[in-house]
Design goal:
This protein has 13 helices and 9 strands. The protein is an alpha+beta fold and 322 residues long. It has 2 domains: 6-156 and 306-320, Porin chaperone SurA, peptide-binding domain (Triger factor/SurA peptide-binding fold, Orthogonal Bundle), CATH 1.10.4030.10; 177-278, Chitinase A, domain 3 (Roll), CATH 3.10.50.40.
Amino acid sequence: MRTINVLAATSLLAFAGLAARADIVDQVVATVDKEAILMSDLMAEIGPQLRDLRAQATSQADLDQLLARKMRDTLDQAIENRILLREGQLAGVVIDDATVDQRFEEFKRLYPSNDEFMADIEKSGQTVTDIKERLKKQMIARTMAARKTTELEKGITITESEIAQFYQDNKNSFQHAERARCSQIFLPAGNDLAERDKVRAQMEQLKDEIANGADFAELAIEHSKAPGAEDGGIIGWVQRGDLVGRLDEAAFALGEGEVSGVIETDQGFHLVKVEKKEAAGQATLDDVRKDIEPQLRSAAAAEKFKKWMEDLRKRSSVQVFI
């Protein structure tokens, strides 16, 4: 594994404000197919994180080590991004200006204030245009990485035996607490007392209809204003504490198939139905199959992507100077 020396880390810290010098800013730290990666490129990435790194450090030596580790990781990512940028450009990946502008605003928010952001880029000798261009190249690289990962995932088949083996090897990860599968009907209400009384009466009427045999899911589709209304008001599986206050109490006080009374919250009025309940215990393979399969597919794709990147790097001319 390549080692980033303490002198390089100290130079980075100097660039951050203790002793910024032009020769540090323009130091070439690596090349990819003769395209230079500068110390200033690394600093542009690490700069917003320096405050946190200083806060984590317990001594100057500790700070130097943190910076060295951060530099190594950032340089590795910069090299990978240069390779992915090349592949993305060859593949015709395009990032529009509006997307770049949005990413730029997100980047600025990494700084405590706009003044500190502007001071930092002035110190580094960069312009807003420079930063946007760098962010655009990063986004092309990341888009290429995502596109390749998706392509690799499509070519992966996860067998039933692989899913079953993963379940057996990780059974302890599939323990679940007591839980209830719930649905709800929700009608919002503001602070006006007359409005709340009107909405409460409407919900009481729905409760009576359910008591007289009306289908809860059909009423949810017709009346509920909560997410999941179109699917019969489904909330899904919840554990204790997942829902707020009296909704949570109702979910675990009711039996299977039971419907709560009208529950009032600050947001409005609710009816909760418990579809199914399960005691704490071991989730079955059928319960978690839908979660395991994408995990295995993602892991397999990540391995293939790593191998793809290693092959690309071998075919590239990469030189590191720190």
